[in-house]
Design brief:
Distance between the termini of chain A: 20 Å
Helix content of chain A: over 70%
Radius of gyration of chain A: 21 Å
CATH architecture of chain A: Orthogonal Bundle
Number of strands of chain B: 12
Largest interface: A-B, 35 and 40 residues
Number of helices of chain A: 14
Structural class of chain B: alpha/beta
CATH superfamily of the largest domain in chain B: P-loop containing nucleotide triphosphate hydrolases
CATH topology of chain A: ABC transporter involved in vitamin B12 uptake, BtuC
Largest sheet of chain B: 6 strands, mixed
Distance between the termini of chain B: 41 Å
Radius of gyration of chain B: 19 Å
Number of helices of chain B: 9
CATH topology of the largest domain in chain B: Rossmann fold
CATH class of chain A: Mainly Alpha
Order of helices and strands of chain B: EEEHEEHEHHHEHEHEEHHEE
Structural class of chain A: mainly alpha
Strand order of the largest sheet of chain B: 6-7-8-3-9-10
CATH architecture of the largest domain in chain B: 3-Layer(aba) Sandwich
Shape of chain A: globular
Shape of chain B: globular
Oligomer: heterodimer
Chain lengths: 347, 253
């Protein structure tokens, strides 16, 4: 383990090499995700189909296969990668800001708010026609975030206070969701809501990808600019302030970025749990706790993990897609247990 | 004057915690802050370090009013050592000391020769260079406090504030830490509980009670039996041996 010295990493050559390696691995798993499915397409065809569409080649590929690769599976795989990267990034940020290893994107009540918003659209038909499910979820997510911010004085009243405000908000919105479903929903609607809550990449298309790409990249950039400041939070807010960090401003900006990224992901693919919690721990175990390395590592590991989870969700049960949230938890928990076991205090 | 505070007041809600305190510390001088629990020592230190905004009054450090100075540029001159700050993150000693370079580095700047020298020098100064790759969690209390001081030194400050840096340490480490602070070429203000240690290591001592300063001067001038009875509610005998020139306090039962 090379946790102790980050100096070597800060050499540009090393950084570029690692970046290239990560992109190659990511490209490979995305290609794999594009090839695997009920309708199997071999890897060579996948690559040709993609290069055809990008105008790099004009190879002879079956039109149906090319369409499946480009119109259905590639966008889905890339959205999965971005969602994984975004959730893991948010988890790392929140664990640093709240100084709590249990913090994750949904601690701000964002997923609970999103589900209430989604339920309002699915069951109550609020804004039917004009307002899509994603818009409803997005509005709900930000309403919940606003409530958490209000309850914790803009998150200035200490990490535990903020987490409690998040827990209370999540409970409130979950209760609202259940109330609406049980009083107004029918069985089919309840099933729809349930499925959506556990997360699904079905139905995502290229416009979703472009939106998410913009949001996640912008979020990653903002967070990287503040990575050094995040390191300074290691010994608490006051300590960060004594190191010259404008604590209030940094915290507000990063919470807002986290809420925006999480809300965008949740409104698109549902509340996929565990990635935001587990991936930062795994990444920290490999690259250490300093954020200039940790944040890109989280994004990379999160992306690869989510694409693999998406593949698993499509192949474990024949002719069926298991909700992605189920897979991330089933795969993530044993992995997490292993990390916990390996990093337990040696006393 | 390196540190100059004028008529500082601060409080929470209706409660006033620091009332009209003025002080000045010369370059290279060590000022001790003593006083009973809740007398406002920690709050005063935070006001002077710019971590809290006073309700009234001003603080000047190296001739600049700190209310007009950005937090970052202040942190290049002023370091603050909290009492027993801890973390759950598994960081190495070197990582912690590197944090001291935060105010000197821009968001994405690389690690410079100057940064490296500051970190290495700070680790050597507190005699922890041999532990640089050790995990923070495995350090003893005294070692942790030394690392905190190293981190403060890595900021290359000329003023250092320490809030009860010897809390929870055994007597050997208490003396070791304070000797180190005294021998540093810095202006420092140290909040302390132990009166004898304050007498041994501080050039001047300020006594606080109920948020106000009740006395300020050399240890000999300040540490008198009547004052200790009034402020700390203890009976004590003060002896001053010619050999060291510092008062020694023995508490009577």
């Amino acid at each position: 383990m090379t946790v102790h010295s980050g100096d070597a990493w800060e050499r540009p050559g090393r950084l570029a090499a690692v970046l290239v390696l990560v992109l190659v691995v990511l490209a490979f798993v995305v290609a794999l995700a594009t090839a695997i499915g009920d309708f199997h397409i071999d890897l060579g065809t996948v690559v040709l189909a993609v290069t055809n569409r990008l105008g790099l080649t004009s190879a002879n590929v079956n039109a149906l296969q090319e369409s499946v690769v480009w119109d259905l599976r590639l966008s889905r795989a890339l959205v999965a990668a971005l969602a994984g990267a975004g959730l893991a990034l948010c988890g790392a940020i929140l664990q640093a800001l709240l100084r709590n290893p249990l913090a994750e994107p949904f601690v701000l009540g964002v997923s609970a708010g999103a589900s209430t918003g989604a339920v309002c659209v699915i069951v109550l038909g609020i804004g039917a026609g004009g307002l899509s499910l994603s818009m409803g979820a997005f509005a709900g997510a930000f309403a919940a975030f606003g409530l958490v911010a209000a309850l914790s004085n803009g998150a200035t009243s200490g990490p535990n206070h903020t987490i409690l405000a998040g827990v209370a908000t999540a409970q409130l919105f979950n209760a609202l969701t259940s109330y609406i479903v049980t009083t107004s929903g029918n069985a089919q609607q309840a099933r729809d809501v349930m499925f959506w809550l556990l997360g699904s990449f079905g139905g995502v298309r290229w416009p979703d990808f472009y939106l998410l790409l913009g949001v996640v990249l912008a979020g990653l950039l903002v967070c990287l600019m503040m990575a050094r400041a995040l390191d300074a939070f290691t010994f608490g807010d006051e300590d960060a302030a004594s190191l010259g960090v404008p604590v209030g401003r940094i915290r507000l900006i990063l919470f807002a970025v986290t809420a925006l990224v999480t809300a965008t992901i949740v409104s698109m693919v549902g509340a996929i749990g565990f990635v935001g919690l587990v991936v930062p721990h795994a990444a920290r175990y490999v690259v250490g706790p300093m954020h200039l390395r940790l944040l890109p590592a989280c994004a990379a590991v999160g992306a690869v993990f989510m694409v693999l989870a998406d593949i698993a969700s499509r192949v474990v049960a024949e002719q069926q897609t298991v909700p992605i949230g189920v897979v991330t938890a089933l795969v993530g928990v044993p992995f997490f247990a292993l990390i916990l076991y390996r990093s337990r205090p040696q006393s | 004057m390196s540190v100059l505070a004028r008529d500082l007041s601060w409080g929470v809600g209706q409660k006033t915690i620091v009332t009209g305190i003025s002080l000045s510390v010369k370059e290279g001088e060590t000022l001790g802050l003593i006083g009973p629990n809740g007398s406002g020592k920690s709050s005063l230190l935070r006001l002077i370090a710019g971590l809290r905004r006073p309700r009234s009054g001003t603080v000047e450090i190296n001739g600049r009013d700190i209310s007009g100075v950005s937090r970052r540029s202040l942190a290049r001159e002023v370091a603050f050592v909290q009492q027993s700050a801890s973390t759950e993150t598994s960081v190495s000693v070197r990582d912690v000391v590197k944090l001291g370079r935060t105010p000197h580095r821009s968001a994405l700047a690389g690690w410079s020769r100057e940064d490296e020298d500051a970190v290495r020098g700070a680790l050597e100064r507190v005699d922890m260079a041999g532990h640089s790759s050790q995990a923070w969690q495995t350090l003893s209390g005294g070692e942790r406090q030394r690392v905190h001081i190293a981190r403060a030194l890595a900021q290359t400050p000329n003023v250092m504030f320490l809030d009860e840096p010897t809390n929870h340490l055994d007597i050997h480490h208490q003396i070791e830490i304070l000797r180190m602070v005294r021998d540093l070429d810095l202006t420092s203000i140290v909040a302390l509980h132990d009166l004898n240690l304050a007498a041994m290591f501080c050039d001047r001592i300020m006594v606080m009670q109920g948020g106000t300063a009740v006395a300020c001067g050399t240890p000999e001038e300040v540490l008198t039996a009547p004052l200790l009875r009034r402020v700390f509610r203890v009976d004590a005998e003060i002896s001053c041996e010619a050999s060291c020139g510092r008062p020694h306090i023995r508490f009577a039962l």
